[in-house]
Design goal:
Order of helices and strands: EHHHHHHHEEEEHEEEEHEEHHHE
Strand content: 5-15%
Structural class: alpha+beta
Radius of gyration: 19 Å
Number of helices: 12
Shape: globular
Helix content: 25-40%
Distance between the termini: 41 Å
Number of strands: 12
Largest sheet: 2 strands, antiparallel
Length: 377
């Protein structure tokens, strides 16, 4: 049974692209897009990138996790068995801060997933670009929670203890130094419940036990070899054995060690370009029941009408701690707000919107709308 998500906060529309010829995102757009997660440990980033390609399931899981936040350990595994989400989405239930960050801005989550499907190697490069900027600004160093090292030209972030992972909290307009892309402001920062601002620009909450929930990794690539998301199939099978429904069969979640997108978990979400639509579109609804299709379509319509994304929850203006505001941060935010205020929405009936192409109607937060995957040209 799919858990429906109640309408919350402000209203946004997920506008479906009327053409399947969306141009690739530029380096600057991708750098802005990954800025909320680029400083996460690479194992957690990989799970987020996988899950972002199934934004409807992320929406379901975020609502479900809030309603079942007290479940842990075997009780949580048992409860997850009744859900048919992709394993990457299920895995994030064990890391509520990451899941709720995605659920608080589904417009951003959808754009990230579209970029993963269309430009996976470029997404990987963008993560490294932003890590380099944070390090150059003096805001990315090893801590008791995570270690920062280099491998060739790549910056590697790993948990200090392999058994415990800490999800960092940071403001992208500050931690990377002076924001270099005024035309593409990052989403407002997500501050988890109970967050207390400190002196450090990169802070950490309570550590979460890893267990088998993190089965992903990152192959950063180099030279001719582009980056890719990887999967440890042994760890994946261990996780899936405890959380999957009765249809579980031990097997590979990847091709070799490279993650493979499963279109059956995409539902009726459109794809960012015609090539992907042609490749996966006919496969997206296979294996799902008519009842589940109806429920998921209801959820999509509910999101279009009432929105779970944008500035609600942790990304609201009310969650911003005034003690963290610096003159630079204020200036960067003013630039972002001017960019949003100057944006002129396309003349389109919002009822034509789906959950796909990327324009957002109204509100503040996210990427400020636009005609290119939600970014300004």
């Amino acid at each position: 049974m799919v858990t429906m998500i109640a309408p919350v906060a402000k209203t946004y529309v997920f506008a479906q692209s009327t053409s399947q010829s969306q141009a690739p995102l530029s380096d600057q757009q991708l750098n802005s897009l990954v800025s909320p997660i680029a400083l996460y440990p690479h194992s957690l980033i990989s799970q987020i990138l996988m899950a972002s390609t199934y934004p409807l399931e992320v929406a379901e899981a975020a609502g479900w996790q809030k309603q079942n936040s007290r479940l842990t350990g075997p009780a949580l595994d048992g409860a997850l068995q009744s859900q048919n989400w992709d394993p990457s989405v299920k895995s994030l239930v064990s890391f509520p801060q990451a899941l709720q960050m995605m659920g608080s801005d589904l417009n951003w989550t959808q754009k990230l997933g579209d970029a993963v499907l269309a430009q996976q190697s470029d997404v990987m490069k963008a993560i490294q670009t932003m890590r380099a900027k944070a390090k150059q600004a003096g805001n990315l160093t090893s801590t008791p929670q995570q270690t920062v090292s280099t491998s060739g030209q790549n910056i590697i972030i790993q948990p200090a203890s392999p058994q415990v992972i800490y999800v960092p909290t940071h403001n992208p307009t500050v931690v990377y130094g002076p924001w270099p892309y005024p035309a593409y402001p990052p989403p407002p920062p997500y501050y988890p419940p109970g967050y207390v601002a400190g002196a450090e620009l990169l802070s950490f909450g309570i550590g979460m036990a890893v267990g088998a929930a993190l089965f992903g990794g990152m192959h950063w690539g180099g030279g001719w070899d582009g980056g890719s998301i990887t999967v440890n199939n042994n760890t994946f099978n261990s996780f899936n054995r405890n959380t999957a429904n009765g249809n579980f069969k031990s097997g590979s979640f990847s091709s070799g060690d490279k993650w493979q997108f499963n279109p059956q978990h995409r539902g009726n979400m459109p794809y960012p370009n015609s090539n992907l639509q042609s490749k996966y579109g006919k496969l997206s609804n296979q294996g799902s029941s008519a009842i589940r299709d109806q429920e998921r379509d209801h959820l999509r319509q509910n999101l279009e009408k009432n929105g779970l994304n944008g500035t609600d929850a942790g990304r609201s203006e009310g969650s911003r701690d005034p003690g963290r505001d610096s003159s630079h941060e204020q200036a960067a935010r003013n630039d972002a707000e001017r960019a949003r205020d100057n944006y002129r929405a396309p003349e389109r009936d919002p009822r034509e919107g789906g959950f796909g192409g990327g324009e957002r109607a109204g509100g503040r937060g996210g990427f400020g709308g636009g005609r290119m995957g939600g970014f300004r040209r």
